[in-house]
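Colleagues,

Please find the record for the two-part complex below.
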Amino acid sequence: MQTILKSENITKYFYTPEKFKVLDNISFEIQKSEFVSIIGKSGSGKSTLLYVLSTMDTDYTGKIFIENETLTGLKQDKLAMMRNKNIGFVFQFHYLLPEFSCLNNVMIPALKLNKYSRKEIEDNAYQKLKLLGIEDQALKPASKLSGGQQQRVAIARALINEPKIIMCDEPTGNLDTKNTTIVLDIFKQISKELQQTIITVTHDNDFAKASDRIIEMQDGRIL
Amino acid sequence: MNFKNKIKLNVDFEIAFTHVLAKKKQTIIVSFTVAIGIAAFIFLNSLVAGFNRDSDEALFKSTPHIRIYVDDKISQTLISDTSNNSISVITNPKIINENKKLLNPEQILKEVKSVENVTTATIWLNVNVFYNNGSAQVNGSSSGVNINEANEMFDIQSTMVEGDLHNLISTANGIIVGVGIAENLNVKIDDNISVVSPLGIVKIMKVVGLFKTSNSVVDKSKSYMNLSIAQQLMAQGPDYITDIYVNVKDPNKASEYISELKAITKYNAEDWKAANESAEASKKTRGVMMGSISFIILIVAAFTIYNIVNMTVKQKMHDIAILKAQGFAGNSVVKIFISEAMIIGILGTFMGMILGAVLVKALSKVYIGGDKGYFPIQFEPQIMFMGLVVGLIVTLIAGYIPARGAAKVDPVSIFRNL
């Protein structure tokens, strides 16, 4: 097995309304193609941990590595480039750009990466949409789709740059059972067939049970 | 939006373009505000430029760009300044009643003409005279000139209403008078009048031409005669010259040649701006007035852009957060929103340039009569260009401030607060 993500002694405080230790000395490793769920009660620090791991939140002590590369202490621009290349995001609210078509929403991170030609990116985006079974919606404006469809577009967007890790914050929090099952199946498929790592924060215990590993948090610590 | 048609456009710009295009109505209204600002800027500045050019042209019909003459001297005490413990000498310095004659004028003229950027230069002698015909008398001032050079400088030919300028060359005692003088003396072409100088010298002269300027005071007092006659009226010889008039390529740079001309001629030189300070002052007043009005209008336009970009940033907090999560760095976000401001600004600036040009064109067709004819305004490429530059700079600043705010958006706080 190959370690893809490693955290060492991550500690973080919130300062408002008063000083509060939200993450307490967290260390763990996640392997390549693992499908990991982070669960815990509200306020256990699971979302905070995800945002620290995502490199968007840099206000912590400790160290984070992706494939043995230290991310802690890098400049914001470097981190942005790193996220673009290595991390895909799926959020509870799908956060598609409403003015763009689904296809363009999926293409944007790849256009930013600027590694392939527009034609290749477009073909690739179609492929991802097909993988998620919504290629027929490709040219519709993002705002015209149902919630489940929008979430699938968001997953396609997270996959477009073939990132090593996909991070999800309550990806099914806003979906009905049917769509939850679809998303879960997709995640399993991605981690097993495409060898991508999935880290998801969730409230949904059934969803968590279906994943490879559950990390449970309480009061800023891993149980 | 179909992206296929726009190959190799930067993705930041694409997002900006899509945002702007998604709100066509708002984009058009804001860019129209900018257009009005730029049009006002162009129109008001063209108005000032036209006015100034017109008044300069009127001025240059009788005033040279530079005049070279003998300066008055103040008498000096014979005893040099006394030191502390000696007797104080009270003096009463006065202007020395010295000859105003320029020494060796032909040589000076030749040297002045060889100076770079000097277009024309001519010798000049003004004489105060009385024009008499029978008992009718008019006082005024006559200029003893080399008529060809004088014409080259002041375009006297264009003011001639009767007779020919060149008759002065063939008729030694000819005189060209203003129409006001001719009317008051009741004379026509080829009539004789007598001209009396302050020294009491009388010359019988033949009217060979009449001119009419825009200024009736000039028409009632001014005349041109041959230099030699003017010299005789002053009881002086053929080398008596008091002034050399000089025109240069760009009258606005006349002052730059002053020191050079002073050094060459060893006499005093004065440019038209120094000689007409009040005209310069009113020109500046006009510039400041119109400048502040157009400035205020531009500020309003800038605020509209600022406002709209600021609002877009506020509305698009989630979009900014998601873009940042996907790896858009802070300067990419700045680029997106500056591009939005620039799209609106460029659209507005070009519409403003067209609108400004239309206004200028329309006003230039308005007939106001008098010697001005049509309203003195014309298409000024320089001001157009300035409008373009000002429009783009204002947009850039108005867009940069909210764009910088967008770059500082913290995605985590946006995601968490839902």
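The first helix of chain B runs from residue 11 to 22.

Comments are welcome before we finalize the supplementary table.
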